């Protein structure tokens, strides 16, 4: 099975406290679900329609593992902590073979 990549871009951050609570819960939840953080933070550059906001790239063993991580109770708790504190664009893509 090919690896999968979770790409999360924050389009806007409305509440830094909620973001901090989300980060505190989401990192451990995704790590426990097999996610390996490859990159996170602000982009060094953004081109075309890109925005300079927090972006996270996480590797999983498969698309199914990434989707299971998203649906896990621990990650859902992190999402509840974020509670409209940010607008995000989250995608899970399969690695090229």
From TrEMBL:
The DUF1330 domain, residue ranges: 3-95
Entry-linked InterPro entries: Dimeric_a/b-barrel, DUF1330
Protein name as annotated: Uncharacterized conserved protein, DUF1330 family
Organism expressing this protein natively: Micromonospora rhizosphaerae
């Amino acid at each position: 099975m090919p690896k999968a990549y979770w790409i999360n871009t924050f389009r806007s951050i409305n509440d830094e406290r909620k973001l901090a609570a989300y980060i505190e819960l989401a990192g451990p939840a995704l790590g426990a679900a097999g996610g390996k953080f490859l990159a996170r933070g602000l982009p060094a550059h953004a081109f075309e329609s890109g925005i300079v906001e927090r972006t996270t790239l996480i590797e999983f063993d498969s698309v199914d593992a990434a989707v299971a991580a998203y649906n896990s109770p621990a990650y859902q708790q992190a999402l509840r902590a974020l509670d409209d504190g940010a607008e995000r664009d989250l995608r899970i893509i399969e690695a090229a073979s």
